[in-house]
């Protein structure tokens, strides 16, 4: 799922990807449901350790998100864990979940196809990551820089102040890096207004809210409207 595919998905009228944070055993079960629904699975791996990155890729995840990627050296290490040679150093596992248990085909072609399917999201969540955004975006195999806005604002010394000039300057720098190298730029947004604002800023891969927050918002809105209506009748 290369950058061109990511951008196409981000513009699609229907969601074609899914994100979740669960344990490996749950992920192993969930990937089959994602495949059945024709949805690309994006897994946020909790660390940069080889066993976690390669394991979730072997299970069939097509996208990998890594928190707090700070520089090109770290990004290169992640690519080595995620990609088969010559693009990386991942141990070869064929005929398993990631290639639908296929038993035939030229090995070199199958490794190339697996590399093409796997997508890397580097999460920019520190001031160091911002400073090195251009070098990370320049790497072949890094498909998307994903801004973790709360962590980034905290790293900049302005926690939660997304209107601060330091935060805006950091976003500008990351956006410039992705434009320069033709990579996707993503973040999570809490509401439609923020999504539209950041899309104008250059974000073309936007994740809208989360299940818990959407439920909270819907319940709060519904209860508030019900209370107002009931009070008005008295």
Cross-sheet strand order for the largest sheet: 1-2-3-4-5-6-7
Indicate the overall shape.
Answer: globular
Fraction of residues in β-strands: 5-15%
Q: What is the second-level CATH architecture?
A: Alpha-Beta Barrel
Q: What structural class do the secondary elements suggest? A: alpha/beta
N-to-C order of helices and strands: HEHEHEHHEHHEHHEHEH
At the third CATH level, what is the topology name? TIM Barrel
What about the largest sheet? 7 strands, parallel
Question: In total, how many domains does the architecture comprise?
Answer: 1
Q: What is the number of helical segments per DSSP (H or I, 4+ residues)?
A: 11
Q: Report the top-level CATH class.
A: Alpha Beta
Q: Report how far the terminal alpha carbons are from each other.
A: 58 Å
Task: Identify low-pLDDT runs.
Answer: 7-15
How would you portray this structure in words?
The chain has 234 residues and is an alpha/beta fold. The protein has a single domain (3-233), classed as Phosphoenolpyruvate-binding domains (TIM Barrel), CATH 3.20.20. 52% of the residues lie in helices and 15% in strands. It has helices at 3-11, 24-36, 50-59, 72-82, 107-117, 127-131, 133-137, 149-155, 165-181, 192-201, 211-233, and strands at 17-20, 40-44, 63-66, 119-124, 142-147, 184-189, 205-208. It has a seven-stranded parallel β-sheet. Helix 3 links the parallel strand 2 and strand 3. The longest helix has 23 residues, at 211-233. It is globular, with a radius of gyration of 20 Å.
């Amino acid at each position: 799922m290369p950058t061109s595919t990511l951008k196409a998905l981000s513009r699609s009228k229907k969601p074609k990807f899914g994100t979740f944070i669960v344990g490996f055993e749950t992920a192993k079960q969930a990937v089959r449901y994602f495949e059945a629904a024709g949805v690309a699975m994006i897994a946020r791996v909790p660390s940069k350790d080889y066993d976690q990155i390669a394991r979730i890729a072997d299970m069939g995840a097509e996208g990998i998100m890594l928190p707090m990627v700070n520089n090109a050296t770290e990004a290169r290490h992640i690519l080595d864990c995620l990609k088969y040679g010559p693009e990386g150093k991942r141990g070869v596992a064929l005929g398993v979940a990631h290639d639908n248990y296929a038993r035939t085909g030229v090995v070199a072609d199958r490794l190339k196809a697996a590399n093409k399917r796997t997508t890397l999201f580097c999460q920019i969540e520190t001031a160091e990551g911002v400073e090195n955004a251009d070098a990370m975006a320049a790497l072949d195999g890094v498909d998307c820089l994903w801004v973790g806005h709360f962590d980034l604002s905290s790293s900049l010394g302005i926690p939660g102040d997304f209107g601060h000039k330091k935060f805006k300057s950091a976003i500008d720098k990351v956006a410039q890096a992705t434009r320069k190298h033709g990579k996707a730029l993503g973040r999570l947004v809490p509401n439609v207004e923020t999504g539209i604002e950041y899309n104008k800023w250059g974000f073309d891969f936007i994740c809208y809210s989360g299940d818990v927050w959407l439920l909270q918002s819907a319940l709060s809105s519904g209860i508030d409207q019900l209370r107002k209506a009931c009070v008005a009748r008295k």
